[in-house]
Design brief:
The chain contains 2 helices and 4 strands; from the N terminus they run ββαββα. It has one domain. β3 and β4 form a beta hairpin. By secondary structure, it is an alpha+beta fold.
Length: 73
């Protein structure tokens, strides 16, 4: 079962891990996340492009792994 999530009014927040030269720009929509039960994430360089949605628990695990430097390229 799929559902359509309206992100047209979402307020996007850039990740603190995004750099300032236009690269690695990840944004998420915390206001949507708190009400929809999913965490929308997008590439800030392509705001009209698609957004990925993650379950809150999965997103939290990912963020924790980034913060503790447990991800490898």
């Amino acid at each position: 079962m799929s559902r359509v999530l309206d992100l047209s009014g979402a307020v996007w927040v850039k990740s603190s891990h995004s750099n300032g030269d236009g690269g690695d720009c990840v944004e998420w929509a915390p206001s949507v996340a708190s009400g929809a039960g999913v965490v929308p994430v997008r590439d800030s360089k392509v705001p009209s492009g698609p957004a990925l949605v993650f379950p809150p628990r999965g997103w939290s695990s990912f963020v924790r792994a980034v913060r503790t430097d447990r991800l490898t390229a």
